[in-house]
Amino acid sequence: MPQIMKKVYLLLTFISISVFSQKKFDNIKSEKLGEERRITIGLPPSYDEKSDRKYPVLYLFDGDYLFDPFLGAVSYGSYWDDIPEMIIIGIHQNKNDEREDDSTIDQNEGLPFEKGAKFFEFVGAELIPYIEKKYHTAPFRIIAGHDITASFANFYLYKEDPIFNAYICFSPELAPKMEVRIAEKFAKIKQPIFYYLSAGEGDNKKIKEPIEKLNSNIKIANNPLVNYKYEVFKGATHYTEVLHSIPSALYQIFESYRPINSAEYNDKIAVLETGYADYLEKKYATMSEILGYQVPVRMNDFKVIENLILKKNAYDELGKMAEIGNVNYPKAMLGEYELGLMYEKMGDPKHASKKYQNASQMEPIGDLNKDLMYEKIDEMNTLAKKSK
């Protein structure tokens, strides 16, 4: 089966599996709204109540129709480790015009009003605390919506300290003054924010013109702390553009999370004259800082950098690789192996043998195991005798 067909097949499989095996429902009694609100919850395949592992949380307005497409995209992307697993919360808004009522605004002030003001408080003061108390959540929150709910999501940006780290807005029907207020906020913001904005070529002028103004204003604000992307999808309608946008938005937000690919390797790493291990350390430090939890260095990324160091004869950097290995996998033989490799390549088989001996007493990892360590010990001992 061709590789692309395999990926398509897996995508369809993950959508069907995840929809039926991870989805559950809950009702939240809201004092703010004076009623119960229904939510859909999607937990990652690896979620375990007994584990300390934490997950970013994706909150969805229009959860009735946005939940399944997002769940499928997240399942697919996390399978290839391009994006992290995450908890998905879909807010139901399809009963008795709930989405319109929830999005009520004062047309003069351009702010949440009446039921809209109550719904605004429900999300920030009731829903988020409820989810974070009940589940293992990381301090990285995403909010997404479509047309009027996408516009409503932007109101959380107006707060002095926005409660969401990333905003996904599909064809937003912007509230009055919003195309100016958001840009003004971005010009002053002092913490990293991700903002994804999209529209369909088939969106009507009433929607597209304010979006274009917003896009222009954000560009003028030009704040490096705002990770911003705007897309208009050709041939797409107000509704079909959402399916184009979902993966694009997720991959924008989690670009730093992705494993090292050929483009990153060729354009950013291989061109360096030195500092390959530092690049790996910084990549994961940035990733962990953005997500709010420690992301362990992938073994594949580790091996990519190790191989480059060997190719460039930068053997002293293997000491830094040993530090990275010990920090991320303290019980594994990785760190000691890297030191053994460093001494071996620098022509010191005696010290290399000692480090390989230490590694043999630790836990195997990846393609490193006791048999390999014993082979390296014998090889180093033989070299040490010949050098006498």
Give a short synopsis of this structure.
The protein has 388 residues and is of the alpha/beta class. It contains 15 helices and 10 strands. Helix 7 (205-221) links the parallel strand 9 and strand 10 (226-233).
Which keywords apply here?
disordered N terminus; eight-stranded mixed beta sheet; 16% strand; AB_hydrolase_fold; alpha/beta; Rossmann fold; single chain; two-stranded antiparallel ribbon; 388 residues; Serine Threonine Protein Phosphatase 5, Tetratricopeptide repeat
Count helical runs: 15
Query: Which sheet architecture does the biggest sheet show?
Result: 8 strands, mixed
Helical residue percent band: 40-55%
In total, how many beta strands? 10
Q: Can you tell me the CATH architecture of the largest domain?
A: 3-Layer(aba) Sandwich
Mean pLDDT over the residues: 93
Residue windows where pLDDT falls under 50 for at least 5 positions: 1-9, 16-21
The neighbouring-strand order within the major sheet is: 1-2-4-3-7-8-9-10
Proportion of β residues?
15-25%
Pfam families: Esterase
InterPro entries: AB_hydrolase_fold, Esterase-like, Mycobacterial_A85_antigen, TPR-like_helical_dom_sf
Protein name: Alpha/beta superfamily hydrolase
Polypeptide structure, described:
51% of the residues lie in helices and 16% in strands. The strands form two sheets. Strands 1-2-4-3-7-8-9-10 form an eight-stranded mixed beta sheet, sandwiched between helices. With 388 residues, it is of the alpha/beta class. The model is unreliable at 1-9 and 16-21 (pLDDT under 50).
